[in-house]
Amino acid sequence: MTSTRGEFDLLEQTWSEVTPDAARRMLVAAARAFAEKGYHATTTRDIAAQAGMSPAAVYIHYRSKEELLFQISRIGHTTSLEVLTSVPEADPVRRMTAAVAAFAGWHAKHHTTARVVQYELNALTPEHRTEVVRLRRRIEAVVREMVEAGVEAGEFKVPDVDGATLAVLSLCIDVARWYRPGGPRTPVEVGELYADLVLRMLT
Amino acid sequence: MTSTRGEFDLLEQTWSEVTPDAARRMLVAAARAFAEKGYHATTTRDIAAQAGMSPAAVYIHYRSKEELLFQISRIGHTTSLEVLTSVPEADPVRRMTAAVAAFAGWHAKHHTTARVVQYELNALTPEHRTEVVRLRRRIEAVVREMVEAGVEAGEFKVPDVDGATLAVLSLCIDVARWYRPGGPRTPVEVGELYADLVLRMLT
DNA sequence: GGACATACTAAGCGGTTGCTTAGACCTAAG
DNA sequence: CTTAGGTCTAAGCAACCGCTTAGTATGTCC
Q1: What residue numbers bound the domain in which A64 lies?
Q2: For B77, which of A29, B56, B135, B201 could close a Cys bridge (C-beta 3.0–4.6 Å)?
């Protein structure tokens, strides 16, 4: 249960639905490279080499380099939306706490994927971008509904629901930028810290 | 006093110390392009064309494309540090309020520069990166001192000073990612909103 | 006017890019 | 054994990249 092994398991888990094996290895390699150097600074030769294959092998499974990015972005957005919505709590305060902890924690734990998800949107084709933006709007709507639920229950006191929604999302998303695996906080601790800070902000 | 004219004035103001005129026009063109498409997706031909000159003209004033990025990053970091430290208030609560309003507001008003400053660090050479990271640490230190001052004065109640510092900085920095000029909030309003949210978070 | 420095452009060089082509290898059905 | 289909590689193409070179225009000092 070393940290390296743990990180590898997480990658395998996120992309577990992707088949065949070579296509999944390519996605994982691309996600790593895109996160580390950015989409435009990554070459298809980088990706293929990291996946242990020849440059041409990329095009057996993907139409283009951009389609690799799109798949990472699509699966990443879908997963983070699931993380956000699958909190069991019903009480508005507990629900917000659990959701922020899970969402911020996901951005820390899967910071590699999250970085591609949050910072490489502009590299997508207009069509793919539109599809991903649709997912992002759903994420935003879920957070807004949770803020509104707390306000209606009289638990949250916010003068500006849109502003509060923006700030909660912004805080969580930015975790992908600053989080480093070797840092002082585990992903779970980041989630707990952020849940506390958001609650203070809203009440 | 159209918004286009206003935006242009801001750019001129930020880079006003840069001479000669052609070098400044090149910097402004590069900052725009880097912010819009990213450093690696921007070509030296893009920059030169936007500045109204031939591709070779870039190399009269700058040694490389990376040096353009470094100058934008260096001046941008220095300016934002000045914005953060030049708040006149002495009282910890008022000081934090004014500083967050100014810092977040700067990231909105100068979102073009701020985007390059915050998201293109990895494209710098190791030497230039080290120099910029030094500036970033000073910014972080200033925010931490303001949090500590509030805690010592008994005005802020935070269980984790490092965590609170991180969150305040993170919120402000992420403005550069989401802010759009045509949106519902002016830069000043963003500053006011964020100052309020941060104060709620800390007290 | 002549010598020199500065600011710029037209042309292009070597290297790298995303992607394609032609064909080898492996597996499995007939 | 033969054939077909899917997976992969070696080689390379056309386009584009950052940057350089050679040369022109302009202004300035003497």
Answers
A1: 3-202
A2: B135
